[in-house]
Design a protein that fits this description.
This protein is mainly α. The chain has one helix and no strands. Keywords: Membrane, Transmembrane, Transmembrane helix.
Amino acid sequence: MFTPKYPPQDTAPIPTTAAPTAYSPTAYVPAPAPVSNRPAVQLTAGSTLALVAGGSAAVLVVGTVLVSMLLAVAITAASVAVCAVTVRSILKSDHR
């Protein structure tokens, strides 16, 4: 039930660059890929400055969001504590 089902093996012959007289799997040798000496990404002064500015803006935005969430939790906890003290005071004065 959990065994993988594989498609049947491909029986097509391997294309060759030269016409060999008999079928040989080693007759086709692909050409090597061209090698480039330049880096994949070239950073200029402007792009580096933009990258630094974008990264610092992202850090500032994330920091602002986290601080505001922490402040919201602190305000909620303080208001719940004030409500609890008020209800306790009302209930205590009601027993007298």
